[in-house]
Amino acid sequence: MKITVLSGSTIGSKTRTAMTYVRSFIEKNYPDEEVTLLDLADFDLVFSDGRDFREYKGDTKIVTETLMASDVILVGTPIFQASIPGSLKNVFDLLPQDGLRDKVAGILVTAGSAKHYLIAETQLKPILSYMKAQIVQTYTFMEERDFYRKEIVNEDALFRIERLIEDTMVLVETYQKAKAAKEAQYGF
Amino acid sequence: MSFADYRIDDSKGLEFGLYTLGDHLANPHTGKRISAKQRLQEIIEMSTLAEEAGIDMISVGESHQDSFTTQAHSVVLAAIAQATKKIKVSSSSTIISTSDPVRVFEDFATIDLISDGRAEIVAGRASRVGLYELLGYDLRDYEELYEEKFELLLQINQQKVVNWEGEFRKPLRNAEILPRPLNGQLPIWRAVGGTPASAVKAAYQGVPMYQAMLGGPASVFKRPIDAYRETLDSLGYDPKDFPVATAGFFYAAETTQQALKEYYPHINEGMKVTNGRGFPKQQFAQGANPKDVMNVGSPQEIIEKILYQHETFNHQRYIAQMDFGGVPFDKIMKNIELIGNEILPAVKKYTAKQ
């Protein structure tokens, strides 16, 4: 199974720190799975112009093709100006309309304020469901105080991340099994 | 304008056509891909078999990326024109946005003379946009390239001597565009995606619309057709003068289950290559529903579907795509046989005006 851990910001350290932990936890606990960290700070992406995701060049093509080949995407996002960053929205814009069909998506949010708690619910989930992802209902929300010098210092936050990963893996396993059983019934 | 200007005689019932995108893909049942040469020759042979089966028209599309063979679709159409006698010869579609309308008109007027008046053009703007870079156009001009070049194509069709000025081509001054088609003008249709917004643009240009339909309930595809006819009416045209055509997947086998089983891997694997992702099995399974526009099933079920679509759309032409994704030629022959022997006679019988 291909798991992509996406850190959706080009600036700042909290989301990257959290998603790096996500990757290492998956590597340690699910050694058979293939996990890739895509940190948007490491890539130079163009804006979407509506073309087929395979027709982009360079870094943009790497990002679109890695995401499209994934079974699981763990989306990490900071909150900027009461929304997801433009860099992350652009990644969704680069993909096809139904580009997340049959993919399981989990969400991790890092924010400067608890007031942003529902932003993933009202702004990120609609994008993921429009693109036909299977969304892990519960997400992990982290704040400034959970981090100190690029480390996660709140044990409860670590527990919540671990539960997010477990929930994501449970959903992808059940979804893939149930879907295969349903498709077998079609008889073609 | 009237149906006659588009060479449509609806007293004879719904026209039935075939279309190919000229895709060049492996047969997923065997993993083997025929050569480009063989694929092109089979497309030409498909047209002669279609003509023998009484099918009304055949069309070939233009795509410029990997996994296609009919980049020079007008050349293929010329070969089809020469190989056949009665069947109408059309495009599905000609990408007018990235072509010079003068050259397109010259090509199709020539095919019209070769074929004794059987050529027509369906002009589109491409759903896969790689050709913009290949042919030297800027994707940012996507909308305007299409509108301007389509308008010029219409003007060349209507006027033997053209004076024209625009953004994307050098002006034409008293330009005589030759040869002229057999009967003065070619039928020119506009290719429309699945939305009302796309369909009303065909009405603004006062041309017939060609609607592509992958899958979904007929009632959804009725909306763009309704919007098209309402817009024609509001612009002072009579919608009864403008034919409507629909296009979609087609595959007949002895039973519906067999048809689904044989065709699904072609669609799914083919779309993975051409569109980057497959066709959801759930949607394909729903395609068997009598109200879904996907004409895949037993001949009897397909007849009922086409008649239901005709009742819903009141369209004048349906064109079937049965060769996508490496369907082997023996299956194409079998499909044409089922159309000729079973489907076509029934469709004509129930849609012809008494």
TrEMBL record, chain A:
Any one Pfam family match given in the protein's UniProt record, by short name: FMN_red
Keyword Oxidoreductase in record: yes
Domain of life: Bacteria
UniProt keyword annotations, A-Z: Flavoprotein, FMN, Oxidoreductase
Domain spans labelled NADPH-dependent FMN reductase-like: 1-143
SUPFAM superfamilies membership: Flavoproteins
One term of GO molecular function: oxidoreductase activity
Keyword Flavoprotein applies: yes
PANTHER family: FMN REDUCTASE (NADPH) (PTHR43408:SF2)
Protein name: FMN reductase
Organism: Alkalibacterium olivapovliticus
UniProtKB/TrEMBL annotation, chain B:
One of the record's GO cellular component terms: cytosol
Domain of life: Bacteria
Any single Pfam family the record assigns to this protein: Bac_luciferase
Domain Luciferase-like: 15-312
Single GO MF descriptor: oxidoreductase activity, acting on paired donors, with incorporation or reduction of molecular oxygen
UniProt keyword Oxidoreductase present: yes
Keyword Oxidoreductase: yes
UniProt-recorded name of the protein: Alkanesulfonate monooxygenase SsuD/methylene tetrahydromethanopterin reductase-like flavin-dependent oxidoreductase (Luciferase family)
